[in-house]
Automatic annotation (TrEMBL):
Belongs to the glucose-6-phosphate 1-epimerase family. One of its GO terms (molecular function) is carbohydrate binding. GO terms for biological process: carbohydrate metabolic process. Pfam families: Aldose_epim. Its EC number is 5.1.3.15. Keywords: Isomerase. It catalyses: alpha-D-glucose 6-phosphate = beta-D-glucose 6-phosphate. CDD domains: D-hex-6-P-epi_like. This is Putative glucose-6-phosphate 1-epimerase. The keyword Isomerase applies. GO terms for cellular component: cytoplasm.
Length: 274
């Protein structure tokens, strides 16, 4: 079943079926919750101080970064991670099947300052035993365009200090150390602010958190971004509590290197959460 509920200034689509429950904010096309029925464990993290004012991107869940990732390369006045996560989206279709519920959404416009392409953006969310998110970028024009995108997923964990990330092996670019390259640590544990772009395309990643495993399957990506703000940054962000960093970890399936889309072509970025 699906129903629309209102929270502050935002409409939330609540999905409940035999396999799982989920919640998607129509502001930002922003998944906020995914809870499989078999274990009842919430996979996603949303800040207790998140704003639902329909203006500021919600802190947590799965922000849709599009049509750029991070700061805009040409204009620092433009919003970080593009502009569709701060727009209202519309539901194009809702389908119930014997594997779950599929919701198709799109932003009210894909045009915005800082991007010239004639694009169509579609988010397809399948809520079943697993959560499957597909972000499709189509080129409706007759000239190619380049873009970035990311599924900037915030995972709920019991304790960042007893958590390990499996599946990355190449060097990464460290945003906390002037983008210098470092070897991926084995085991990959967390003890300080972490903001890393791993330019590699693992199909499967696992977060092991006090023996609880969350699996993340990716495709259509060229990078995996790993972020934990740690204590000082957590305290400095008005939509995070001082101790927020202890129970969240961002593992983002991303296209951070410029991706070209030819006329009439479609790029699909996919993340599956188990
Ligand atoms: O996850 C990587 C990152 O770009 C970090 O540098 C940090 O800024 C994070 O995204 C959150 O960005 P936001 O604009 O949502 O506060």
């Amino acid at each position: 079943s699906t129903k629309i509920i209102t929270r502050d200034n935002i409409q939330l689509l609540h999905i409940d079926n035999a396999f799982a429950s989920a919640e998607i904010s129509l502001f930002g096309g922003h998944i906020l919750s995914f809870k499989p029925k078999y274990d009842g464990r919430e996979r996603l993290w949303v800040s207790q101080n998140a704003l639902f004012d329909g203006k500021k991107p919600i802190r947590g869940g799965i922000p849709i970064c599009w049509p750029w990732f991070g700061g805009h390369s040409g204009n620092t006045d433009l919003p970080a991670h593009g502009y569709v996560r701060a727009q209202n989206w519309d539901i194009l279709n809702t389908e119930e099947s014997d594997t779950g519920t599929t919701i198709t959404l799109k932003p009210q416009t894909t045009a915005g300052e800082g991007f010239e392409g004639n694009a169509q953006l579609t988010l397809v969310v399948h809520v079943g035993q697993q959560l499957r998110i597909q972000l499709l970028t189509s080129n409706l024009g007759n000239t190619p365009f380049t873009f970035n995108c990311a599924l900037h997923s915030y995972f709920a964990i019991a304790d960042i200090k007893h958590c390990e990330l499996l599946g990355l092996s190449k060097q990464y670019s460290d945003k906390t150390r002037s983008l210098q390259m470092f070897d991926t640590p084995q085991p990959y544990c967390f003890s300080e602010e972490t903001d890393r772009v791993h330019i590699e395309q693992p199909k499967t990643l696992s977060i092991i958190d006090k023996q609880i495993k969350t699996r993340i399957l990716s495709s259509g990506h060229d990078s995996i971004v790993v972020w934990n703000p740690w204590q000082d940054k957590s305290s400095s962000m008005d939509d995070m509590a001082d101790d927020s960093y202890l129970t969240m970890l961002c593992v983002e399936t991303a296209v951070t290197q410029w991706q070209e889309v030819a006329p009439q072509a479609t790029h699909t970025l996919e993340q599956v959460i188990k």
